[in-house]
Amino acid sequence: MNKVKVQGERWFPSENSFSDELKDLWGDWYCDSEVGKLRSVLMHRPGKEVEGITEHNFSEYRFRAPMNPERARYQQEALADVYRNHGIDVHYVQNQRVDRPNAMFMRDLMLMTPEGAIVCRPAIPARRGEERAVAATLASLGVPIIKTINGDGYFEGASAMWINRETVIIGTGSRTNDSGARQVEAELQNIGVKNIIRTEIPYGSIHLDGYMNMVGENKLLVFPWHVGYDCAKKLMDLGIELIELHDIEELKQGMSMNFVALEPGKVVTPAGSPNTKALLESHGVEVLEVEMDEVMNGWGAIHCMTAFLKRDPVLPK
After folding, report:
1. Is residue 20 part of a domain?
2. What is the spatial distance between Cα 245 and Cα 243, in angstroms, rounded to a whole number?
3. Helices marked H in the chain — which ranges?
């Protein structure tokens, strides 16, 4: 019996989209919001790299004060326990450089999307190279990397904020330039983001989470004196409620906006900011507090330390 020979050029491609096959071929990774139920995160345990931060050199690494390594580790682990207690998988970066004490602030090093991660390129020399260990860890987990910021671009993950599946804010400033922002915009548009809200991050803030953060599907906590009018107007036109935080001491010193939503209307936030907590609760937001004062010596807190790997989609009502 003669066998039919099939020539190579007669193999036809699959018409399935990348997102259709993502879960089967790569794993269960997804993020299109800041508030969808959190399922999986990537963190970095403070290691040897934070043991040399002293009163003599802390400013070289953009720390606001020396850091007690054991206390910083204890506070980060307490946050990780909150995540685990809420059914969230906590993954850790492997083989990070031991000369990069800012590496615990994972939000700056990647941005998760519905189809995979964008690996960032930090702006300051003291952080360059941290992203290599992040990329290797993502690959080991099976998280697709859809873009690595390159060329003359620099971009940090906290310069972007998901509003919904079709809308993302991107801020440019000292940590993200136009080239980096355009690279991210192109990738987001390629996967179906229709509304890119560009805004300038003001002098005095380095990332968007310094003055805005989502607390619910249509609720955004903002420090009104830093939000540009055009940005605010576009958000309000989309039906986003802006909740104004006026306590600058809690915002800047207590990092009260540096929280992570566990699900819509429920956040885990640094302890010690009673006015911010009362404001959120008055808008129906449940607030869990974790001590973060030692971690904050590195000018970061909960949102800075947490890179999302999976959130449930927020379905339109």
Report:
1. no
2. 7
3. 18-25, 69-85, 130-141, 178-190, 229-237, 248-252, 274-282, 302-305
Going by C-alpha positions, the residue among 113, 109, 45 that lies closest to residue 311 is 113
What pLDDT is stored for residue 316 in this prediction?
Answer: 65
CA 119 – CA 179 distance, rounded (Å): 15
Residue 47 maps to which CATH number? Answer: 3.75.10.10
Domains: count for the chain: 1
Q: What is the pLDDT of residues 139-190, one digit of tens each?
A: 999 999 999 999 999 999 999 999 999 999 999 999 999 999 999 999 999 9
C-alpha span between 144 and 111 (Å, rounded):
12
What are the E-state strand segments in 120-203? 145-148, 160-164, 167-172, 195-200
User: Which string of b and e fits 185-199 if b means at least 16 CB within 10 Å?
Assistant: bebbeebebeebbbb
Distance, in Å, from the CA atom of 173 to the CA atom of 130, rounded to the nearest integer, reads 20
Token pair for 254: 């207590």
- Terminal CA-CA length for the chain: 61
User: Considering the domain boundaries, does residue 74 fall inside one?
Assistant: yes
48 lies in some domain: yes
| Helix count and strand count (H, E) for the chain | 8, 15
